[in-house]
Amino acid sequence: MSDHIDADASTDALPKIGAPATRALASIGVTTMSQLPGHTERELLELHGFGPRAIRLLREAGAQFRAE
Question: Does 49 map to a domain?
Fold first, then answer.
């Protein structure tokens, strides 16, 4: 059963978006893809270390964001 949990966790893992962007997300409690819809792109872009490239990489990985 733990294999199933690990598989679910890996599909919800954030993609490689760079250490500064990953730290920026962690600073607001976002550590998985499923937590992204609670935030707007604008909110994320205001974080130190988080930029348009990170948004693009997250979108390419299938991320959804809260509407502005």
Answer: yes
